[in-house]
Please model this.
Amino acid sequence: MACNPYQNLPSSSFWKTGVTQESPYAIDGIYAKKFDILPSTKIAAAGSCFAQHISRHLKANGYNVLDVEPPPPGLPASKHQRFGYSMYSGRYGNIYTVRQLLQLAQEVAGEWSPQDYIWEKGGRFFDGLRPAVEPDGLESKQEVVEHRAYHVARLRELFQSFDLFIFTLGLTEMWVHKESGTVYPTAPGAIAGDFKPESYYFENASFGSINSDFRQFLKTMRKLRSKPFNLLLTVSPVPLTATASGKHVLVSTVHSKSVLRTIASVWSERDFIDYFPSYEIVTNPRLHSTSYQDNLRSIRPEAVDNVMSHFFRQHPKLNTAKQAHKDDRDEAASLSDVQCEEALIQAFGK
Amino acid sequence: MKKILFLGNSHIGALRKADQLHSLSSRFSCSSSFIGIPGRGGFYRLSLDGEYLVTLKAYKRFMDIDEHAYSDQSPNLIRLSYFDRIVFVAGLCRLDSRLYYPPSSSHVPLLSKSVIESIVLQDSVEDSRLQHELPPLFWRIMALGRPDVVFLGAPLVSADARIFMDLACDSRDNVRKNSECIRTVCSQTLNDNGRPLMLLPSPELLDDLGLCTKASYFVDSLNWAGDAKKAFKQERDMSHANATYGKMILEQTVYPSLI
Model:
């Protein structure tokens, strides 16, 4: 019998056995960890809104997810998310693009300062780089400056202390301040501020520029830190709410996700960078889009559970049963409720 | 003459003693009653039955109340509507650092007014360390609509407790800014009768950061019966204030805002 290179491959290598006939809730061989995450591993999490799910599940299951800006003890848990607490490892809100991540790291390292980031709305002032963390805004521009200075100081400690950085790549499209190159998590005017075409431009980052930003980010982190770290990349399966590219939103979504997915593949060839396929688990055709809520954009809590169950097959849950039960209840209350500034753009749609 | 009920735990002792020693009620033309049931097992077991406060026979010795306030039906029921004002003394004063700063944190955050408002006006808390420190009874009596209720809370701990001794400059600035904001929020938060809902001790009673009560106000500290140190088997009492503190609070803060 003649040989062929596919002859001895595992069932996961074939669409029929790996997808069509495979349970989408326990996909064999879809993820093999590159490194261990120990109970002592200090984790920092950031990224687009889908990253909130990952961060919460890791915390709820006993992983050491750092939080350098914890909520005040007297603030009711129901209000943590409203003020950007307990979402990530700091109050930076959603970081959708690699450029945003790079600029934050450069700001923390003292290499760069944002410009035109104090936005006004109705006499209140917002930090345009994280406009959703103070939904009522602050009383003065000076207060925004002071709050940002505290935030950046706390992030310096975060960036110097984590062992593992988990980052969810979300978008390629962004709005940029013409004069300074400052990028924002949302279009000026969506939450606060005023959109002036002469002040901002739209950029749909190419593979090359994201790749360069990512390389620069790693360089900046190495300058900030004295010890090596691991990185775990994921790609958000949440489609774009809207595109400013002029193309159909479906085309733009596939383009963005494809570019980001490629970035993840390229960089996860390094030993210290792993890729976890949350994107593939959610968008698996075997699920016939049932991972999505009725708006075909938001992810159902069950789908997040499915994603995380694949993660925990390689990185087992660490907590005791009692703690898990408590946290699962907390989690259930908040799972379907992530904060997504990007979704606010919908309000401006026709 | 306004009838005022001071309702709380062992911290009532200093206020009652000060009122007795200095005849403060008479000076402010009011009549004051006191209920100071010590400990979490006591005060936090009080409940409401309609407009009546349900007490226990065993609590009688912690009550110094105008006899007309008792219900005709039971000596364990106190008619709250008999009083014009109720001052809550149990629970955390709204300046208390435990509400704002995580205990293990060496950095004090700068908090926005919106966050501070959410803390000041909370009626419940999920943080298990604070669950026994906030009195649900306060909000339940508030919901009755009358009488006029204000919240004072327990004294801030003694400066001897040395909390946050090694704060960096930026953290000290943040404490000052946050304290200022808490005072603004409290002064702007009015009850249905247009009076401040949350009373705070004046800055002169506190340390320079406003996090603690000056240590001198803990000398000869008082609970209901007298010596708080003996009652709580402590060498140094860092939570119960003395009659001088009680006098200052009543004279400067409570009576002027209620009468």
